[in-house]
Amino acid sequence: MEIIEYEEKYLEDVKDLLVELEEYIMSIDKDELDQVHEDYREKMAILDLEDVNNNNGKCYLAILDGKAVGLIMGCIFPYNKYDYLDYKCPNRGEITELIVSKNVRSKGIGNMLITKMEDYFKSLGCEYVLVDVFAYNENAIKFYNKNGYHARMHTKIKKL
After folding, report:
1. CATH label, 2-146, candidates 3.40.1190.20, 3.40.50.300, 3.40.630.30, 1.10.3720.10
2. What average pLDDT does range 152-159 have in this prediction?
3. Boundaries of every domain in the chain
């Protein structure tokens, strides 16, 4: 097992991992709002990687037997010019995607990926890391809690 920076030769693996993540999210979505649109596989990875490239980010892959079996993407998004009005605006990175393929979970790969991303953010002077976690994803919530993350915001939803 090795953790490497994204290489284009793993693009199909990245697409597969993102589809696996979205299909899992769909399976636990009590509101039934998530979907895997027919264009998802071909477009989502490209959009995520563009965010990484345009926002001082990184994509790291967990490689096992020549295949990407996990990934993490993170960016350092800029604040807008008015954020300072109600926020101290510390340097912060944001984890935008994290997935470990179901057949290799619980082997420490997620911990290795998150440590790699946190080290990258620290190297650029980030003081905090943000991550949005789907409320119904209890496994992810437990994972992030074990890694020292805590809730700062809660998004509420109501069907009309």
Report:
1. 3.40.630.30
2. 88
3. 2-146
Q: Is the pTM of this model over 0.85?
A: yes
Residues 37-63 have pLDDT tens digits of 999 999 999 999 999 999 999 999 999
Say how far apart CA 14 and CA 8 lie, in whole Å.
9
The residues, any chain, with a CB within 8 Å of residue 6's CB and separated by 6 or more, are 14, 49, 52, 58, 59, 60, 61, 71
